[in-house]
Amino acid sequence: MTSTQNSTKNTPSSKVLPLSDAVQHALAVTKRGVDELLIESEFAQKLARSELSGKPLRIKLGLDPTAPDLHLGHTVVLNKMRQLQDLGHNVIFLIGDFTSMIGDPSGRNVTRPPLTREQIEENAQTYFKQAALVLDAEKTEIRYNSEWCDPLGARGMIQLSSKYTVARMMERDDFTKRFKAGTPISVHEFLYPLMQGYDSVALHSDLELGGTDQKFNLLVGRELQKDYGQEQQCILTMPLLEGLDGIEKMSKSKNNYIAITEPANTMFAKIMSISDQMMWRYYELLSFSSLEQIAQYKKAVSEGQNPRDIKVAVAQEIVTRFHSRQAAEDALSDFVNRSKGGIPDDVAELSLTGAPLGIAQLLKQANLCASTSEAMRMVDQGGVRIDGAVISDKHLQVQAGTVVVQVGKRKFAKVTLSA
Questions:
Q1: What is the CATH number of domain 3-238?
Q2: What is the pLDDT of residue 104?
Q3: Which of 147, 205, 207, 413 is the most exposed place for a label (fewest CB within 10 A)?
Q4: pTM assigned to the model
């Protein structure tokens, strides 16, 4: 076993420290928008001891590089990390290059295919670069869990596995459901929460963050730290942000996401497309506005102010964070122009042949619709315009020339069609 596993016992003092105004403020910042903080009284004492000693807390967030891009849903927990970072604590951005090869079974009803080393390395290259759009990169400790997981070897893995029973593993809701349904559970999937928990031992974590679907894994970290004689970490779970549909959690696979690297105009327009009710959820989980400011916004809406104005504010805030203030202003102008039927400045230009060309084929070839059947539906729904005029004829033959074609509110193309 490595030296990490022979840690000196580090138990907190039994004396209960008073909570200063600064500690109570830090606790309030920590609790804003969270789903759970376990155990709150323990974390309050950690904050108090940190203030007394001047030693920052070690706060850990682990992400497996299962995909190369982050979306706004990922930034919910990154925002919380930044808030804790701004309070003066050490944040550790842990890239799970080892655990990615196992595959996180959280929330899965089938075994997650493990990634290859090449896929992991490719995805990891972009992870922190994107996360640094939220975190203070200069004050962030970047680690890879292969640092301590690889040296474990077979002997270390067996010894680690002996610290947790199958019965306790089966307390996981997703494992239980799969077992009852007769869905296969591979033995290697039991290793995932163990390895994630061992990360907390290796890093001497004081607080670990994750989504609500990570609660079981985070609790394993607490238990393993106890086994290794360390003070147990507290855990903080953040809600899962709903996507553009307002129902399912934001996910690329559900196509309801807003990538943090999307163009400013697209990002702004997508945020403006969420419902007025969902807008408050985005304020709560994504905005850095104070709770007092958000309360003022809600009061203004209840007194008759158009929710659209309030939605513009959060859209501009988010676009500014990932682009710039000028980009946010330009995105607002572009959005207003489009809402009035105007044509944006950054329309893609392409050339097609085959005039006269059926409208459905034109939309498909211009990548404005995925298929001719989708194109037909968009025409039926009144969602297709040529040079600003609504098209209602599904059998329209577009003649040679240059036209601006629009599908829905955000898709445009300047098409030069020839014979």
A1: 3.40.50.620
A2: 56
A3: 147
A4: 0.72
